[in-house]
Every structure is written in C-alpha cells, then in structure tokens.
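Project standup — Tuesday

K.O.: blocked on the structure for the chain from last sprint. Re-posting the sequence here as requested.
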Amino acid sequence: METTVNSQKSLSEVNQSIAVPKNASFWQTLRAFIGPGALVAVGYMDPGNWITSVVGGATYKYLLLSVVLISSLIAMQLQQMAGKLGIVTQKDLAQATAAHLPKKLRYFLFVVIELALMATDLAEVIGSGIALHLLFGWPLLFSILITILDVFILLSLMKLGFRKIEALVSTLIATILIIFLYLVLLSKPSFSGILHGYIPQPSIIDLHQSGVNSKLTLALGIIGATVMPHNLYLHSSISQTRKVDYSSQSSIKQAVRFMTWDSNIQLTVAFVVNSLLLILGASLFYGHANDINAFSQMYDALQDSNIAGTVASAALSTLFAVALLASGQNSTITGTLTGQIVMEGFLKLRLPQWLIRLVTRLVALAPVLIIALLYGSQESVLDQLIVYSQVFLSLALPFSIFPLVYFTSNRKIMGDFVNSKWNSILGYLVAIILTVLNLKLIIDLF
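H.V.: unblocked you, prediction finished:
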C-alpha cells in the first residue's frame, strides 16, 4: 500500500480531528463514526430528487420505485469504495486522480466534475430560492441571491468543529423524513402497489419513448439525482475526519468497517426519503403530472382539493416548503465542501479556505442567475432545468465511477484493502450499463 505523497491533507482543517474510543463496545465505536454518512446522504435527497421522483410517481405511479431501490444499492456499493479509498490511502478521490492518472485525463475529469458540481448546485440554489420565495413571498431573484450567505454560515460552523456540522445536517434530514412520512401517511398509498413497484419491470427501458417525462429519462434522472458524482469525492475526504492509527492494520480495518456501517445506515434513510417522494407523487398526484412539474405547482397542489383531495390544506403546503428549504440548505453545505475538495485535489491550489468556497459558490450561482434574469418569475423553466441537470449528473457519473473502481481495485494503491474481484466487476458493470443507457438518452434528446 502506498503512503500519501502530498503533505496537504484533504479538508486539512478537520482531517483526523475527531477522536475514536479505544477498546470500546460496538455501539460506542459506531457512535464515534456516525456522521460523515449523513453528509453523504443529503446529496441523495436534495431538491434535484424532488422533481424527478414526484413527477415519476405522478406519471407512472409506483413503477419507478425499483429504480430508486437499485440506485440506492449502487450508491451503497460506490460510497463504501469512496470512503475506503480515503481512509486507506489518506487521499480523497480528486487527490488520487491527480496522483495516479495522466495530466490530460486529470484535467478532463476536473472539467466534468466541475460541471457536475454546477448541475448539483443548480438544483440546490433553485430549491432553496423557491422555498424562500414560497415561505416569505420574497422576489425569486432576491431569494436566489440570498443563498450566497450559505457559504458564510458554513465557514462559521467549521470553526465550531465538524461534529456540529454533522449534527445540523442530521437534524435537517430528520425534519425532511418526518414531514414526508406524514404527507405520505395522509395520502393513504397502496401497500401492494408499493411492494410491486420495487420489482424491476422491463418496460422501464422503453426504446420507443422519448421526451423529458419518458420512463427512461425519468429513470436516469432518478439515478443521476440519487447516485451523485460529487458524493464520491466528498465521502473520500470526510471519511478521513476520524483519527486512525496508521501504524496498526487493525485500526485501519476498524475505520473501514465502521465507515461502511455509517454509510449504509444513512443511505438507507435516504432510500426511505426518496421512496416517500415517489410514493407521494403516485398516491396523491397520479393523473396530474402536468400540474406538478414545478415546486410552486406542487406547493399549490397540496392546498388544491381538486388535485390533493380531502387532505389538501395550506398547512401541508407550508410543511412542503419547509422540507424543501431544509433539503436545499443541507445540500448546499455538502456541495460547498465538495467544491473545495475538488479544486484543492485536482489543481493542488493552496488558497485561503474562505476564498475557495466563495469562488466555487459564485461559479455555481452564475448560470442560475442568468436563467433567473432571462426568465424572471417563470419557475417552471427553472424546475425543468432541474430535471435536465439531474440527467446531466447521470451522464457525468461514469467519469467518477471508473476512476474510483480502478483505484480501489489496484493492490499497489490499496494494499490488503483492495476490492474483492466480484466487487470490482460489479462496479465496472454498473459504469458500463449507465454509459450505454446514457448514450441512448443523448440520442433521444438530440
């Protein structure tokens, strides 16, 4: 196993900053390791998921639940690889790419992940902006602009310690989960329909159907919104926040084991939230897909008895907007952290932390502001843009999966912690299948 080449640690201000108890019970040790998985999980329930999942349910009822399930299983596999890479090599995925791949390929991958970060931030900024607009009645452009303050909130939180960020994120996740569980229970979904929906159906890959609301487009949108490229970079970095004794193989093994527990527990919560989103669309909005293509339309639909039936009320709309704001804020925190990880890892920049975060945020805000200025209050345009941003994330995903699987399958890099052969084959198979489906999607769209 190689030792780290760069003296610069990933997210150096919090790297190895959280102590882990020695000779403690399973639950005490798990408690110390629980946290990074929550930051990873928020990327799997960000505002980008909302449009694709709810519209998917409203259009095809429970059919695409199987896509949510498969996406979540893929996510668990890939995030375990990413976290393991960070712990074992003491490099994040961006640093590993810079260290082990040719220069031209490194810069190409940097451009792809930067575009993916912009697509991710697009959904987060739009989601937060629209939530503020719906809750407080502020102009949409002002609501989007005010999201730049998120960066400074994050800087303040970082000074309080990484545990405080993990606690905040976990609280916001709990808020989203409780609100959507309540909304779904009110909608009285079909239990048998849900169970049947988790069984994959060949009709999802319909080669004769195209368009933004086709089964394949929404399925790939769900995959792109669920398995997020930037999360692989994020997890490979924040998995290093726990102190590990690198002179002891058993200490490294323990860190990898409990990182896996943390990741899988938190991603199971994300799977439940994504399922609830699609179930809500199926049970409450089925047959009204054209009426809920935008966040504001969903907000209005929840208080329209002609669409939501007897459960419609202003209180439900407010809860929806609160959950949307919580989702946007959560994803903003992790998106900003990933922006720093990618810039420092790929380009080996040594700029002040606040400057890197501010620059990455402004770069991501630029396209949103241009579109908001061009289309003003036409929220449907922004919401439609979110769907296409999630499809782009699906297109970008293989460019993150292939390097990750390659690094974690290389014994020179990973030593005794190299992937098992079946795990590597499965990882490559996922990337290949996604690439083929994405080529089909590109042909359809253009």
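K.O.: great, moving the ticket to review. DSSP finds 21 helices and no strands in the chain. The radius of gyration is 21 Å.
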